[in-house]
Amino acid sequence: MAKRLQFVGNSSAVASVLDRCLTQRGERIADLSIASPVLVVFLRHAGCISCREALWDLSRMRTAIEQRGTRIVLVHMGDGKRVERAIDKYKLSLIDRISDSTQELYRAFGLELGRILQLLGPKLLWRTFAGVARYGIGLVSADPSQMPGVFLIEQSTIIRRFRHRTAADRPDYLALCE
């Protein structure tokens, strides 16, 4: 049996969630992290400008991330068909992904539901207005209050993390992989 991801205060319930959540290829994050570092990117929903911006950023940085020996895993909670279209649009169809419609994995990684200013604050409204031209307008296809996050996992241990303070935060994926 592979190692479990190490969390402060890890409980059997968290370990159980991590054992059940598999990529589209049937692999667990802990198992993948044994072979190479894994950048786990938790998305909001396919209609979210920030989510599409994250996919665009990952598409541009994918080669550099993979050259560092890091594997990317996307976690989403929305309508699989909409998410797949968005992933395909940004040429990320070969990236591992996990569908977490019940948001159990989000909770296991400590990603909470956002408060109103985290979800609709001035920074996000400006980024949404500016992003519509580049990314288009999308429909909400999952819980719009779910906050995103990014975690670098190596040897079943979280090495680095980025928890969004607002839905508009933009992580530096390359810096997280260093």
Polypeptide structure, described:
The chain starts with 11 loop residues before the first helix and ends with a helix. Helices cover 41% and strands 16% of the residues. The radius of gyration is 15 Å and the shape is globular. The protein has a 5-stranded mixed β-sheet, with helices on both faces. The protein has helices at 12-20, 29-35, 49-67, 80-89, 104-108, 116-120, 122-135, 173-176; strands spanning 38-42, 71-76, 96-99, 149-154, 157-163. The protein has one domain (12-176): Glutaredoxin, CATH 3.40.30. It is an alpha/beta fold and 178 residues long. The model has no long low-confidence stretch (mean pLDDT 81). It contains 8 helices and 5 strands; from the N terminus they run ααβαβαβαααββα.
- Could you say which overall geometry the principal axes of the C-alpha atoms support? globular
Text of the CATH class: Alpha Beta
Number of domains: 1
* CATH homologous superfamily heading: Glutaredoxin
The ordered string of helix (H) and strand (E) elements is HHEHEHEHHHEEH
What is the CATH topology assignment? Glutaredoxin
Helix/strand/pairing category:
alpha/beta
Mean of residue pLDDT values: 81
Number of strands: 5
Widest sheet, order of strands = 3-2-1-4-5
Main sheet overview: 5 strands, mixed
N- to C-terminal separation? 28 Å
Number of helices: 8
Spans of at least 5 consecutive residues whose pLDDT stays below 50 are none
- In helices, the fraction of residues equals 40-55%
Name the CATH architecture: 3-Layer(aba) Sandwich
How large is the radius of gyration?
Answer: 15 Å
Report the β-strand fraction as a percent range.
15-25%
